[in-house]
Amino acid sequence: MTEQHDDVFEHHGGFPKFTAAEETENFGPFVEQMRQLQDLAVSVAPPDDVFGEARALAQKLIDLLEPYQVPEGQQPAGRIISLPGRGSLLMLPWQVERFDEGGVRATGVFRRFHLGGNGAAHGGVLPLAFDDVFGMVVHASGRPISRTAFLHINYRAVTPLNTKLTVEGRLDRIEGRKSFVSARMTDESGKLIADCEALMVQLLPGQP
Question: Domain residues of the chain, as ranges?
């Protein structure tokens, strides 16, 4: 970012300024395995005793990891830019392909975990996808950290699972603390799946 952008970025309310984390040998594969478990958890129907075995294994994993909980901003999840979804299980496992003042582009798929019904992604995961992109658009544009004040989606077509999609977002205009942004989601043929517009508002001093 430019010196001017750095100066503006410092006016980020009371939001902590987190730093990126480096990708390690095992964390990325671990997150992908957890995503596979999420997919399986919502798609399998084994005998109940198999669920019992799975519970026991899950408890072992909980016992293994629980002692290593850390405060926000110290965990690698959500802080590794090179990983799909930045290594966060909350974020969609999409990969950022463009990140600059001209906009942000990310590609990926909605998985079985995101199923809403009849083979389509749940409509509620699209706002998450767009909102995540808008946060990156604001940052890539050198704007101060902002919160989402308004987000409107037009669902133009059924959102398929396991199909490569692209989201492209941009900053449309700035009015004081307000950043007006928009984005489009398309499939590989260019078909419009959804479009979205939002208002991102710069935090005031001390605002979380």
Answer: 3-202
What pLDDT does residue 35 have?
98
**What burial class does residue 107 get, using C-beta atoms within 10 Å of its C-beta: 0-12 exposed, 13-18 middle, 19+ buried?**
middle
- Phi-psi group of 97: left, alpha or beta (phi > 0 → left; psi -120 to 50 → alpha; rest → beta): alpha
Q: pTM surpassing 0.85?
A: yes
Residues of the chain with pLDDT under 50: 1-6
Instruction: Answer whether 140's CB lies under 8 Å from 100's CB.
Output: yes
pLDDT single digits (tens) 112-154 = 999 999 999 999 999 999 999 999 999 999 998 899 999 999 9
Report the top-level CATH class of 3-202: alpha beta
Tokens encoding 74: 């110290």
Predicted local confidence at residue 111, as pLDDT? 97
| Contact yes or no for 124/90 (Cβ under 8 A) | no
Decide if 192 contacts 185 (C-beta within 8 A).
Answer: yes
Task: State whether the Cα torsion 143-145-150-153 is positive or negative.
Answer: positive
